[in-house]
User: Fold these one by one.
Assistant:
Number 1:
Amino acid sequence: MNRISNRGSWKDIFDSGNSGPTEFLDSLKSAGFIPYSGDDSTCGIENEFQTAVSGKNSDVDLPRSIKESNYLKNLIKRINRGDLSVKSSDGLLEYLDRNEKGIWENSWVRFPRNTLSGFAESVFRHDLKQDKSKPAGPDRNDADSFIIKENGKEFLRIPVSYLLKLALADSLDSRTYIHPVIRNTGIKFLDSYLNDNTSPEIVSFFPVKCSNDTQSSQSIKNQTLKSYLLTQMLVLYSNKKFELSMNGQDVSLYFSPHPPVRQKKLNDLITDSFYRELFMSPCLSGWDRGEEKHSYMNLCHQVLSRSSLNSILKLKEAGIVSGNRVYLRGISNISLANNGTHISIGSRGLSGMLQSGEASCTIQHEKYYGDLAIKIFEHFIPLFTGTYSASPYRLSFHDFHPEKVLGFLSHELDFTQLRMIWSIWQNKADLKVFGNPVLPSGPEWFEQYMLKTFRLRGDFVSDFRMIDFPVSFLSTDESPLFNGKPGSDERLKKDLASMGIFDSKMSVYTLYRMRSNAASGYTGFEGRYYSLFESLQNDLEKAAAVQTLITSLAWKYIINNTVTHEHIPDTPGTESERRQIIFATAIGLPCFFIKKNTRNIFMNKIISMTRNTRGSSRYPGYLKVQTSDYLAALVKIIKTDSADLVESMNLEKTIEDLELRIKTPSEYSASSRITDGILRKAGAHNQFKISADEFNLCAEEYYREDLRIKHIYEAYEILLEEIESIDSSETSADPEIASAIQTLMSTRNRSGFIKLMKSKTAEGDLPLMYIVTMIQLLLVLLYKEMKYFSITGVKTGNA
């Protein structure tokens, strides 16, 4: 296939009535406009959280639901009939009865319905509608499943993700006076609390933009911290107002990137359909037709479970799995319980051009150049992995069944890169006996014997979420995803569906996803490669800034015709070649291999600036590239090629910080800082001094306790700064804002009140009255920010 056919002719891509691509680029160049540079960018965010309910198995919904389920009853009956061994129920009963800490991740909650305020009750009834755009229509078919009776009393049974929305609605009830600013803002934010998938997802209350004073990255950090603190207050509100704590259920919410260890073990013990019954959210909030969305999420789980099974066939074809013995504990895949953060950026200039209907900027231009920007950007994603966010994870010897540990990589890389990564990974991990590599391949008792006898420690991975989740499926030869042609995603989905690894009804998974003006109301990109931020203050802000800078650099290359679609061919091999580096960085592999005669001209540019690159003796025709040197080369390119952009965006210190993270990752990278926190919690000096389960369980505890409190304190720092700023400019303050704050607290000692709340919040020891005050104060401050961005011309709504 030649390069021209990969790219597609201008005639194929652009209608004859529209301006061609040359005119579009010329118009940008003549205007001196580089998208996403200067004050052009906007930013929004979506955060996914982990939830847990603490309590006895007789009080918490998850163990109660399992005990009361027909699934367990039928299992016991089959055992009693002699159809199954008694051991068939041992693991499930152990899960229920042996939970010393009493932590039940992703459990739903039950609470008396009469604790809801009138407004919250009306919100709940509205959300039960089959189609919320038709309030007079029928309820969902499953509406009765959210209302149960206990001791003659009605209780609601709902996931925590929906509980948050009801808590916000409840705090806005008009039985007592609430300032209109507070009430209207809270109502506007209700739909930002999505009840989707397994974990709570909270999208930006409004997009932010660059200004003369701040970058959009700084503004989105501030909003995220206030949103996080508001959400923590809603959790405390729910525990008290809805009598959850009184009924033996204490809810907590925090950032955690991995599916919980115990949930993974439970998943191995039950069927995929029962897993969905227990954990898939009903999508009560965020969509007009929630029941249809719930069916879609069930489809996603079914498809990814099937896709995980189909990966075994690919691994056999690649020669990685030999024979017919494979690890298969269950057919349910738990990857949808991974949690991450998505940062979306938009271009005000490009969005304006598209919305104006100018012939020089059409949806064809948006797609053609948007795809090219994505291809360029993917080369830089290794800079983010483990650097700004991470998901440290310990793997034991048991985990190194290739069909288990390689996850979805067989669907994301071609066989050449897949085999190379697997070979390097085995060398990195401690999987050798008398110098010879070994893999787990026998019964569990034999694997235990091998582990103990030869002390096979396994491995440590810095960003395991990138391996354990299908971040981006590989294009097919006939249907490249990023070739600039409209409808390329639909064509690829059909190909993947025919291969049994995807479904055409699902949205295609990508690392850097285009947000089209037609679908989103703006043109931009969504970064979906973020796992866990150790610091929301430091890591999140800088990550968003660097994402914006590199996107702008990609457009600079495009406008100057430095990089075209021809430079980065649309073949599966080229895609795999550049994406292998992302996975190598996530695993922590020291090196990777690039073809000497690669057709990726842009990759050649990067490799030419990479030190210590040499021909491979093991793989003739390939260059051996040190991962750390590749990252250093990327930083060098950013400093050289985007010097003008760095200056216009005031990012000099951000680039200095990036260089430190790359040069000294053991001290400055997010992965190292998170790992250090986990080890302090465990009382260990090295991740290999404790077992994989001990490390991963301790990580969950660290996220749930220490890191949650750290993020709360960071949010209070921002809150305190803002309150002190308002107090110092009381005379010139917006009268609407001043009036709303005055209804909550007097002008005297507001800072003192915030400091008191800071210490009490971490302990969870706040009276309900103070919790309500904090919720309403945060709504006022978020409104203040939203009002500013509305005045400065940014469309409000979810970014």
Number 2:
Amino acid sequence: MRRPVVALTVAAFLAGAGGCARRSQSLEERARAALAQTEGRVQVTGLQKPVEVLRDTWGVPHIYAQTVDDLFLAQGFVAAQDRLFQIEIWRRTGVGELAEILGPTYVERDRFARLVRYRGDMAAEWASYSPDAKQIIEAFVRGVNAYVQVSADRLPIEFQLLDARPGTWKPEDCLLRIAGLLMTRNATAEVARAEMVARLGPENAARLLPADPPTKLEVSPAFPLEGIDGRVIETLQAAIGPVRSAAEQGSNDWVVDGTLSATGKPLLANDPHRPVVLPSLRYLTHLVGPGWNVIGSGEPALPGVAAGHNERVAFGFTIVGIDQQDIYVEQTEAQNPNRYLYQNEWRDMRIEHESIAVKGQKPAEVELKFTVHGPVIYEDPARRRAFVLKWVGTEPGTAGYLSSLALDRVQNWKDFLATMEHWKVPSENLIYADVDGNIGWFAAGLAPIRKNWNGLLPVPGDGSHEWSGFLPAAELPQLYNPPQHYIATANHNILPRGYRHQLGYEWNAGFRFHRIDEVLHGGGKFTIEDFEKLQHDQTSLAAREMLALLKQAPAGGPEMRGRLEAWNGVLSKDSAEAAFYEIWQRQLRSLVAAAEAPPELRRLYEARLNAQVVLDLLRKAPAAKRNDLLLRSLKDAAAESQRLLGEEVSAWRWGALHTIRFRHPLSSDAERRKLFDLGPVERGGDADTVMATSGPRFTQSSGASYREIFDVADWDRSVGTSVPGQSGQPASPHYGDLLPLWAEGKYFPLPYSRAAVEKNTKQKLMLEPK
């Protein structure tokens, strides 16, 4: 899963948007007037030779160039045509320049972005991704800037509403680290666990926030955890956006070899899960040039393709979850809080001073503090402590997903393994299939070696807990042509039996993986249609297990209990049982949290409760306590269901509660909502079904905005889904045209051969040297 393009709040936008709208035209007219030119001819500064851009029926650009520089200049230009405002917000988020257009509430976020900026050896940084990464990124950035120049007098409507202009891109803007924080884990969990330990003791904390595999929480009396709470990570949480429970983040991928496919060649399926937002985090493209012929999805602000295929190899990914973060607690000097104790010596923090431009105000002068372990993210003067984030982002080559520039060109398993040597952030289960019939998997990522602790709690910064380098890539889990003829991952615990290294202790519950495994293990000659169905599978294994517990409870309870116990566990949007089950689970989590955690920790605990933890706690509880929780929550669910859905059970539907809306951050009034917003759309599934549709208060906010299924026997038979559309410009026909397909679980083709591309071409644009 690639780095997030930040979805900012309405309030933040409005802080800088007041009163600048021109009223002579409607918003729709102004938005239409700002649309990019996608047909005909455009002269572009920096091109060496003409480049052909064929946009297909679904808005996917197929870019044909005669040189590598032109190919990536064109990719930058075309991505900016469709997503200029989105990628400008992404850039400003990473470099720490949001306050310049959004006002003073973003100063602290900008400061944090600058704290985690890469400050190491730039030669090593560029070389870590691919030998030609610098050349490619420089060309891509020239393309973005070229479009900014072309569109200077007709910027997208968002810029007009904010009275803002895009900045000039630099190659280093593609090396940003801030977004990688969300995918490197586990600083927020360390702090939550420390707070639990301080208030409840290590045994109770381990029970309530279990590690996988179960691991003892070792706490030293010489290192008190009191006072370590959510304040430590407030700035970090703000910087990475809304903090979501572990169940909300995930992905699925699987691959079968020819013995299990109808074609006799591998089939590969992948649906990365991330926030489902408008515009989409994903952007599909097809890049054809010397040494390049790759199609798939990436992020609009980065060159290359993250998940896709070339002439010989297909690839996809899910997050592994290697623990790539630690919180260090530095002891500061009483007389000078900018000095800290390390290896029995007082050392001066390194302090940098920067000025942050602020809209409507004088620049804000800020301090950035660092110790040997990394940036200081919080200070507690009363206890003489400074909290420091140590993470892999300070290492060269840890800008998320840029190693895709090498992955896009692999030709065989040997090439693939060589690329994995340089894959560092985020840690990914990368799956592989090639035209020769081979399949494989590699758990790639930079894995810190902790020799004397496990990374589950913050540690003292006195020098007693230091990383001892990183695991060699050859020692990371991997498979090639396994005897079961298929491979699947879904963010579950992927550690092989007997694996001797520590990668992490926090995985998603295995329900999605076990359902995929159940289907694939059943065998057969799978087709693309079979995998389309599996990617949209709404069977809940969690529900199966929960209902098995309920059937052991004494008789009684609401009338819906009988229907629930006879239900097949499929969370379809038209199911009354699914609606009641989800309401019941919400009530059950509240009761479990109240029974297990003291009032002051209940909210913290409940936010981290997932179905697997609830099931484990219920199974271990005395029968009387378990039955009381199950039956009381059923009674509460019956009352809540009537409140939410009415008294007529036959009218209850899961989709009536479970929807997704695509809200633009600027849609603050009726006219803007009409222009920008899409939906609502009813959804089935939940966080634990293969069709993952998690989110707060019965809404979907996360899941698969992009899906791919690749047919190695004939690339032109490959298909995908994306939502809501390829363009971020609301007047474009490709702003929301993919939403109906996505909502109905339908796919569109991913034409690859020149003949197939031309057959599906709807617009042709020639980019010519200026």
